[in-house]
Amino acid sequence: MKHCLACLRRRWKSHLGTLALLLAVVWGVQAWQTRDVPTGPAPDLAFTLLHPDGSRSQTTLAQWRAQHPGQPVALHVWAEWCPICRLEEGSVTRLSGDWPVLTVAMQSGQPDAVARVLAQRQLPWATAIDARGDMARTLGLRSVPAFVVVDGDGQLRSPKVGYKTEFGMRVRLWWSRVA
Question: Under 8 Å CB-to-CB from 162, ≥6 apart: which residues?
């Protein structure tokens, strides 16, 4: 029995290096993917906003954020053609029940096309139309899905590209509130 425990301990220790290398690679890829996200104040972007009730308005990020004074908000950049974005839809919907979330439909067509997608998929999201990807580029995001927090002071924080769990999204928002 003692011999078996020693073997397990040795095997476990031998995998620590592999785990450390894997975490370093994942961190490096994430840092590379978000290298162009600006630091500091969020840019004041103008866009057409599709409201969950289907209505539309012209607004800016600052005006939208003003509806949620002093609290962090999430920007979730997605595309209707992105399979990973589809995997996150339920998480984003649940998150938007507890936190202010502005989704950004990057390169997914004009407002009518995006409205159809939201209706077909039953997504009750406030959605900014980014037909050419200009908003995403200004935010330094080149691929979808992407997630960035604008903290209560208007600073961009915690950018993430690729699949995110609902828990991961919530932690990023919570952390921006306490840090």
Answer: 30, 33, 84, 143, 145, 146
